[in-house]
Amino acid sequence: MTTPVAQRVDHKLLLDYYKKMLELRVFEVKVQELYRNGRLPGFVHLYVGEEAVAVGVCANLRNDDLIFSTHRGHGHALAKGVPGGVVLAELWGKVAGSSGGRGGSMHMYAPEWGFMGTNGIVGAPIPLATGGGLTAKLAKKGGVVVSFFGEGAVNSGSFHEALNLGTVWDLPVIYVCENNLYATEMAFSRATKNTSVASRAAAYGMKGVAVDGQDVMAVHDAAAEAIRIARADGGPTLIECKTYRYVGHHEGDPGTDYRTREEVQEWKQKDPVKRARKQLLDSGIEEIKLAAVDEEVEVWIEEAVKFAESSSEPLAESVTEHVY
Amino acid sequence: MSEQGRVITYSDAGVEALREEMRRDSSIVYIGQGIGPRGGNFRQTKGLWKEFGDHRLRDTGICELGATGVAIGAAMAGTRTIVDEVFLDFALEALTQIIQQAANISYMSNGKIKAPVLVRGAMGAVRNAGAHHSHTFYNWFANTPGLKVVLPATPYDLKGLFKSSLREPGPVIFIEHKSLYNTKGVVPEEEYIIPLGEARIVREGKDVTIVAMSRMVDLAVKAAAALESEGVSAEVIDPRTIVPLDRQRITDSIKKTGRLVVIDESPSSCSFAAELLAIAVEDCFHELDVVPKRICSMPVPNPFSPVLENLMIPSVERIVGEIHGMMKDVRRKS
Description:
heterodimer, A: alpha/beta, five-stranded parallel sheet, two-stranded antiparallel sheet, 7 strands, globular, B: alpha/beta, seven-stranded mixed sheet, five-stranded mixed sheet, 14 strands, 37% helix
């Protein structure tokens, strides 16, 4: 990348984003380890490689703004402010988890932090987020809603119907597509003739932009502009963030039979966390200062593990609670 | 229920309930196709747009999946919503949102997020609309934890149940019957609500219990009148809501009469009728005088031909005939 980002960035901001991205990365690596050791039940889809999107977008949000996430949503929850221990406890099926152990990875909800859930159904959160936007618009408090989804969702009817309603009603929704090129194993180029997600905005009379999803400041800038417009009742924007997951679709999928190792390595060269670190060093921040941040993140993850591990299992007799 | 008083139609009872609730609760937003200036395909929002306008009566194009998802998402975020599928058949376009999102959300979020959304649709055979516009899918919804399922049979019940459904914390599937929209009944002008889960004894009797809902209540009442002239006293019960179900009132009646017939406009397999027969066996086994009976639609898609469709759906003649047979049969008691 040749963009001289370091020259224009606010160092304090970039340092914050570096730390947050590192938290997301370290969190997922820890989840991977716990999962592989058989400590966590269920299934997990990890966010490794895509951290700049969640962090760059959520940095612009207020606590009462809402986000609706996907099956790959741990990073979104953390970026929106849900404490690491609460997210991890949910992955563990514990009572201290955001859903008290009733949800797990793909059904975790933390409305206290404006986190309206991960989701096990691809495409489904897009209409839900649009509805959240309707509530925000009617409330007239300048609130906005972010709808995260992958490129795997954009060929679904949910995407089409939701973006159409979002635009025709001028709802304060930011549709953020994390285009990581593969829906499970299906390459986007094999799934559609039009691989520009941003260009699809035109079909709805919506603004559409594409950004380098591995550059946290680029994501931040695009999101800041879209959110500013939405807060001013100027309607929705579709932001396509070009990104990549280093890991398989889910833990257990090696992710190597539908893409080449070279391709994965190529994307790792653009790693958002390393890139931010390099930009900080290039701009004169001392290594020792970054090492201190790294250390803080290590402490943070260990505390999250302790918190989750020490939480109790749900009471078996509570199984029928909260159905209605 | 008073037999005297103001008489209005089933569809007007719905409009009146909606108007009163939208005045009472300014957060209610109504989403659907043709529900604005047009006043609804079944006149189910007649005159409301003039009072509440575009912000609260939100017309959409034909997009049940998106519109239902939006209604559910808005509800999750704090707005009480109604989404009108118009024909219940069209709710199938949106089933993933209703089942996977609305019905599950309270449980998945440990009770932290509720989706107070009323999903409205008109069901059933009327004027030979054919297979795509005549289905009666209430059994599907009733089989999903997290949903409440309401089927009013009269204008009085429609109004009272609609109002209580709009005060529920979570999703309610509110199913009207297309052939009932022009039927009339007494509806008081003063405020009343009917709690979900309270069956109505439509007609008291001592020889046989007939359980029926929605349009089938009218058939049951007619069959009961025909049977009375032959000396058979039939009790007709309308549960009004499948979920929650007034198990007590139904089983009390079965224990009293010793005979149960369930009329169901859906096919019998895995149906409400099947559930009621199971309840009769579980709760009233020793009080049953004869094998309980279910009279359901035949397991075929609704045919277009009037000759075929009339045969497919339960009729007064079929109900009377089945009960005749039942009255002759006496279960051997040990």
